[in-house]
Amino acid sequence: MTQSVSVRPVRGKEDLKAFLDVPFALYAGDPNWVAPLYVERFEHLDPQKNPYFRHAEVELFLAFRGNRPVGRISAQLCRLRSERYQDGVGQFGFLEAENDPDVFAALIEAASAWLKQRGATAMQGPFSFSINDETGLLISGFGTPPSVMMGHALPYYAERLEAAGFRKAKDVIAYDFIEQGEMPRALKSAFDKATADKDVVLRPLDKKQLMKELQTVVSIANDAWSDNWGFVPWTEEEMTALANNLKMLVTGDYVAIAEYRGEPAAMAITLPNINDWIAGLGGKLLPLGWAKLAWNLFARPPAAVRMPLMGLRRKYHGTPVGAVLGMAVIARVRNYHVGRGTTRGEASWILEDNMPMRRMIESFGGKPYKTYRIYEKLIG
């Protein structure tokens, strides 16, 4: 007789370790899954270390058959999101489960009950934890590993969510770039115009003034994306956490800032695709994983990078100068990485209906290769 599924909240370090362990068995036969580093995931789930918890309430759940964990989910309510949209939407994330409708149903019920108790009338996700973290469920592009800070999934996840009553809210797209040698014509034209214009200063991030520079970057981002679907602004604490993460991972040239007539107007941030480096470590840095990571980090440039952030102040949207500034910051980081030997890049994620951005990316060779879906469901 099959044991029934039970769900309980995560309590204590042993449960938290079990929460992080759930996907290891699920993806054992998937060569494209990359185990995240335990040390990073523990910090992400730690209310003392992740500034998300300063403005959000979170519950983590584990599903069991007997004593065996068979699934997990998070439920979260972000105060900043609720204040901005006032739409009764709570969120879920970290969804991983065996291919069993009973497990999915039990996890969804636990998360939705928790959200309903706090006044939510709908749930949306997956977000792990917010739209500024891992966003959406992979629904196409399973044949390649995810880039840094992007999710992976098993193909049946979408089917199980849809069978449980979830429907599409929005898709986001990841674009792939394979370096062909010469700079694409559209990028070269924008870069040449920017560098020839005395009103434009195109520069890297100054790591000696890291916090001041990140204030500039976050100011551009919060202005650039303020009208985007689901946008929640970055907080000062999140900016500080970003600064701490960037210190070891990147040089100033991983970031490009464009100033127009003395005002910072556009920016682009790239990250090394550390998933290439941690694949095969099983989430652990000991005993020798730290040496592999350090070698890759300091001894050679990455084979691939990801651009998770690019923004242009709203007053320049739809203007000729805005088009030049937006493409010029991308061209600058592209030139830096290509000059070091990097051969691949990802721009992600891009809202499916952000056609100006999509057309710009496609104009210089980006190919859509992964789609992530954000689902929603009424729970009132």
How is this structure best described in words?
The chain is α+β, with helices and mostly antiparallel strands. It has two domains: 168 residues, 3-Layer(aba) Sandwich (Aminopeptidase); 163 residues, Gcn5-related N-acetyltransferase (GNAT) (Aminopeptidase), CATH 3.40.630.30. The chain has twelve helices and 15 strands. Strands 1, 2, 3, 4, 5, 8, 9, 10, 11, 12, 13, 14 and 15 form a 13-stranded mixed beta sheet that branches. Strand 6 and strand 7 form a beta hairpin. Helix 6 packs across helix 11. The longest helix is centred in the C-terminal third of the chain and has 21 residues. The model has no long low-confidence stretch (mean pLDDT 94). This is N-acetyltransferase.
CATH topology of the largest domain: Aminopeptidase
What structural category characterises the helix and strand content?
alpha+beta
Number of helices: 12
CATH C-level category of the largest domain:
Alpha Beta
Low-confidence runs of at least 5 consecutive residues: none
List key phrases describing it.
Aminopeptidase; 37% helix; 12 helices; alpha+beta; 13-stranded mixed β-sheet
Give a quick precis of the structure.
This protein has 380 residues and is an alpha+beta fold.
How are the SSEs placed, and which strands pair?
Layout: E1 5-9, H1 12-26, H2 38-44, E2 56-65, E3 68-78, H3 79-85, E4 89-97, H4 101-117, E5 122-125, E6 127-128, E7 134-135, E8 137-140, H5 156-163, E9 167-178, H6 185-196, E10 200-204, H7 210-224, H8 236-249, E11 255-260, E12 263-272, H9 275-278, H10 289-299, E13 304-312, H11 320-340, E14 344-351, H12 355-363, E15 367-378
Parallel strand pairs: 4-5, 13-14
Antiparallel strand pairs: 1-2, 2-3, 3-4, 5-15, 6-7, 8-15, 9-14, 9-15, 10-11, 11-12, 12-13
